[in-house]
Amino acid sequence: MVQHTLEQLTPVFKQKLYTVIGAYRDEIRPVVNKYSYVIEHAGWEQGLGSSIAEGVNTITRHADYDGILIALADQVMVSQNDYLTLLDTFDGTQIVASSYSGKNAVPALFPAQYFPELQEFNSDSGARALLALHTNAVISVSLPQAETDIDTKQDLTEFTATASESGFLGEGSN
């Protein structure tokens, strides 16, 4: 899943791709190193919000960007074109968020003015709370495929079966 997501993001961000890793970092790092800079988050057990904060803190110490896209490796149906659509919608002032199941969520692109809030995250709460707080500053992009995420082995089994039947995985995939 991580490799698939990075393969979608790499053509979009080229050499400016960062990946926060925590759990299973020793197994994941060799894959991530091929595609992006690695940000190792020792406090990953604190949850997704703390991983977002670690990523934004590290990125802003090393580079000056006008926005940061937050994407999750478990949203395997999101494609390179979807990420490009989010970027094309970005105006530098408003948050650009994926919209599915009646809500705004990630992947989402946050302008620099929201970096301080992202850097304060310290729990398992992800970006959704910030999107809800700033609902008037969000441009929603319909991305129903982002609803598919794989959180458990059962999710993976079901996705693999469905994706194989539909041809999503292609020949030789597992």
Reconstruct the topology from this structure.
Blueprint: H1 2-13, E1 18-21, H2 25-33, E2 37-40, H3 48-62, E3 67-70, H4 80-89, E4 95-100, E5 103-111, H5 115-119, H6 128-133, E6 138-142, H7 153-166
Notes on the structure:
The protein is α/β, with parallel strands linked by helices and 174 residues long. The chain has seven helices and six strands. The protein has helices spanning 2-13, 25-33, 48-62, 80-89, 115-119, 128-133, 153-166, and strands at 18-21, 37-40, 67-70, 95-100, 103-111, 138-142. The strands form two sheets. The protein has a four-stranded mixed β-sheet with strand order 3-5-4-6. The protein has a two-stranded parallel ribbon with strand order 1-2. Helix 2 (25-33) links the parallel strand 1 (18-21) and strand 2. The longest helix is centred in the N-terminal third of the chain and has 15 residues, at 48-62. The radius of gyration is 16 Å and the shape is globular. 28% of the residues are buried. The model has no long low-confidence stretch (mean pLDDT 88).
The oligomeric state is: single chain
Order of helices and strands: HEHEHEHEEHHEH
Number of strands: 6
Distance between the termini: 11 Å
Task: Provide the low-confidence segments as ranges.
Answer: none
Trace the largest sheet across and list its strands: 3-5-4-6
Shape: globular
Mean pLDDT: 88
What fraction of residues sit in β-strands?
15-25%
The gyration radius over C-alpha positions equals: 16 Å
Number of helices: 7
Main sheet properties? 4 strands, mixed
Helix/sheet category: alpha/beta
User: Helix share of residues?
Assistant: 40-55%
